[in-house]
Amino acid sequence: MSVQNPSADAAEPAETVLSWGRYPKVTHRDVHKPAWDDQVARILEAAGPGCLLPFGAGCSYGDSCLNAGRDLIACHRLNRLLEFDESTGVVRCEGGVSLSDIIETFLPKGWFVPVTPGTSFVTVGGAIANDVHGKNHHCAGTFGAHVHRLALHRSDSGLMVCSPAEHADMFHATVGGLGLTGVIAWADIQLKRVDGPWMTTESIPFSSLKSFLDLSHESNDRFEYTVAWIDCFSGKNARGIFFRGNHAANYRKKFHPKRGPKLPFALPAWVLNRWSVRAFNAAYYAVHALGKRAAMAPYDVFFYPLDSIRQWNLLYGAQGFLQYQCVVPENRLEAFEELLERIARSGMGSFLGVLKQFGSAPPAGILSFPRPGLTIALDFAMRGERTLELMRSFDEIVQASGGALYPAKDARMSPAMFQTSFPEWRSLIPYIDPKMSSSFWRRVTALPPG
Amino acid sequence: MRKIIVLGATSTIALEVQRQLATRGWELLVVGRSLGRLTEIKADLLVRGATRVLTYPAELSSIAEHNGVLEFASRMFPDFDTVLLAYGSMHDQSLAATSIPVLLDELQVDFVSSAALLTLFAADFERRRMGCIAAISSVAGDRGRRSNYPYGSAKGALALFLQGLRSRLYPAGVHVITIKPGPVRTPMTDHLPKALPLADPQEVAHDIVRALERRSPDILYTPMIWRYIMAVIELIPESIFKRLSF
Q: For residues B177 and B224, what is the distance between their CA atoms, to the nearest angstrom?
């Protein structure tokens, strides 16, 4: 699967760095941990071709943040805020700054991140490199759409500042570029004005795909954030809970950030089985199925319910897990139903099923994942070949429907699947930094080793 | 408004302490070797809410540069009330144990220059009959161990020095805090075995900030569990301890 770099064989100390799914388990030759911007250029200079990959918080699920047998540049210490313009809400920060750091610093001043994925632990560099999306995709697009400018450390041309206006081609390659175009030194992010940390939220049960779509259509104009939880055992008669919300105005209740427990070690694999998950899903649905409910919720509960359980990924046991996130065009609803049927029949899905209707915002980068249609994200405990076989059977449906898989979640898609999901993929190649590569990229482009 | 001078401002623990102080509205004078890095720190602290940040580049392991630091502080940052000494170095043990130049460099950075610098600031605080001096020693200074006694002896000497200084400055109302962190996840410990449990710099900084705000305790173990671990380690008889390889 991942290719060993022949020149790495001699080097001894190997470091295991895991992505969020804890699969695949690969070793790296070295993990550089620069603490200062001035050290990055030296690391780039000393490296051989195709040897490096920037690494943020490791929140990608698969191997897009890994570089088996080669080196990583861990960017977590490059976490400085460099400038903030109070009048415009634009913050300039280094690539290793986390979204949670931005929120904690600027929310008290009335600013929030423009787009956020389901965890706040991601770095700005990672959010750009994967052009992440959130519950507001239908009105705000992806994270990359809110980046005004960024500076890249390139091994061939030094520090390169790019934006939609200057070096626009490099900018569009870097947004969604999976870290392959260089190390993001800093980026200017447009924050959004909010009144405070509270959200007005509603949860509404639904019991078919059609009623989900009706809810989604009628909510898109009135709610900034929409998403649904789906019971993966319910098949094409999808039942689930639709969540929608807006930033609350003029709500002054005192807010205490939550800091929950931490899973100390990987649970035994049998804890999550089809019966325990089925029972959880039934109970979760039953709790919310009583009818529409409205509530005020703090932003962290609304956006990041899982962040309160640190290391929840250990729930899936030592073998780790895979997340399957695809998008299927909305006019291919029958394909989507078939996919839901196969997921239900497999009995292998988990309780974290998420469904969302993407908006029609144009892609911000060459390899941006979101496109008009329905996206579903679902976890599967890694159980070896049968899990991989199951996912290949999902791929057939997604590929035939003209859909796509999300690289940030992927650890196993075939080169053919990737290349039909992202027909523009070859146009990224000229912008890849000659010293950058990744396990994911080598796998899906099936490039020869070395 | 509290005013602090951080000596060795680019060390990982110092970085976190400075951020937490910035959000609490402290004014800071940050001293370190590289002006470029100090400028980055200043930008970060100002964005995070510091009211005022001054920078002063100096090579603190060189005693000749010490007077310049105090002069600058007295002129540009008068009435500072707290000094945190946060710099240090840990060489590879096998080098420090065999190479005399490396050993002397470690003693120079971690003890000799630190003691000299603190003597300078102690006199200033004693004259003003106010202030708080905090310095980062280490749990490694509590007992000489096979695996890092050069570093440990310098940090242990620093702890003894601070103990005496605390007593000397007590009548003048100047408080001295000895900070003894356990192993912390920093560039200094990146090369250590991965199995070692490392504390987060944020957690250690949180304890230090609380101590600076309260000017208490005298000796701060952080994370606190190290106080008990070291109490046990100090009970081991030397005849047994010398056989232990850690």
A: 15
Strands A27-28 and A30-32: unpaired
- Reported as a single tens digit per residue, the pLDDT across B13-61 is 999 999 999 999 999 999 999 999 999 999 999 999 999 999 999 999 9
A-to-B residue pairs, Cβ atoms closer than 8 angstroms: 34
Q: Rounded CA gap, B2 and B158, in Å?
A: 26
The domain ranges of chain A are: 6-76+431-445, 81-194, 198-412
Chain A residue with minimum CA distance to B185: A77
For the whole model, what pTM was predicted? 0.92
B47 and A CB contact within 8 Å:
yes
Instruction: Out of B36, B44, B190, name the one closest to residue A81 (CB).
Output: B44
* Positive/negative CA dihedral, B237, B238, B242, B246: positive
Q: Return the HEC string of A321-375.
A: EEEEEEEECHHHHHHHHHHHHHHHHHCCECCCCEEEEECCCCCCCCCCCCCCEEE
**Do the beta carbons of residue B48 and residue B19 sit within 8 Å?**
yes
Question: Hey, what's the torsion of the CAs at A384, A389, A394, A397, to 10 degrees?
Answer: 160
The CATH number of domain A6-76+431-445 is 3.30.1490: no
**CATH (residue range A198-412):** 3.40.462.10
B48 vs A83: CB contact, 8 Å cut-off?
A: no
**Tens of pLDDT along B63-117?**
999 999 999 999 999 999 999 999 999 888 888 889 999 999 999 999 999 999 9
Closest CA to B50 of B105, B113, B6, B96: B6
Contact indicator for A149, A161 with CB cutoff of 8 Å: yes
**Interface residue ranges in chain A relative to chain B, Cβ cutoff 8 Å:** 15, 33, 35-38, 77, 80-84, 91, 105
Q: Which among B200, B226, B199, B221 has a CA at the least distance from the CA of B210?
A: B221
Contact of A187 with A217, CB cutoff 8 Å: no
Please name the residue of chain B whose CA is at the shortest distance from the CA of residue A81: B44
What's the number of domains chain B is made of?
1
- Residue B246 maps to a domain: no
Name the nearest CA neighbour of A233 among A341, A155, A129: A341
Provide the residue range defining the domain that includes B173. Answer: 3-241
Q: What are the strands, taking DSSP E only, across A382-435?
A: 404-405
pLDDT range class, residue A298, cuts 50, 70, 90: very high
What residues have CB less than 8 Å from B3, skipping those under 6 apart? B26, B27, B28, B29, B77, B79, B80, B81, B82
Place of tokens 């450390």: A153
Q: Which CATH class is domain A81-194?
A: alpha beta
The pLDDT tens digits of the residues spanning A368-392 come to 999 999 999 999 999 899 999 999 9
Best mutation site among A77, A94, A97 for testing chain B: the one with the most B CBs within 10 Å? A77
CA–CA distance, A187 with A163 (Å, rounded to integer): 10
Q: Enumerate the residues of chain B whose CB falls inside 8 A of the CB of residue A84.
A: 47
- Which helix (H) or strand (E) segment is B67 a member of? helix B66-76
Closest CA to B124 of B54, B61, B73: B73
Burial-class residue A434 by CB neighbours within 10 Å (0-12, 13-18, 19+).
middle
Cross-chain CB nearest to B47 (options A35, A37, A83): A83
- Please tell me if residue B187 touches chain A, with a CB cutoff of 8 Å: yes
In single-letter form, the type of residue at position A348 comes to M
| Chain B residue with Cα closest to A17 | B194
Q: In chain B, positions 49-78, which contact chain A (CB-CB < 8 Å)?
A: 49
Using an 8 Å CB-CB cutoff, list chain A residues near B10: 36
